[in-house]
Amino acid sequence: MITLKSQREIELMRIAGRVVAEVLQTLEQAIRPGITTAELDKIAERHIRQANCQPAFLGYHNFPASICTSVNEEVVHGIPSLRRLKEGDLISIDVGAVYQGYYGDAAATFPVGVIDEEDQRLLAVTQESLRRGIAKALPGSRLTDISHAIQSYVEEQGFSVVRDYVGHGIGNQMHEDPQVPNFGRPGRGPRLQAGMALAIEPMVNRGTWQVETLQDNWTVVTKDRQRSAHFEHTIVITADGPEVLTAL
Ligand code: MG
Question: Against a cut of 0.85, is the pTM above it?
Answer without folding.
Answer: yes
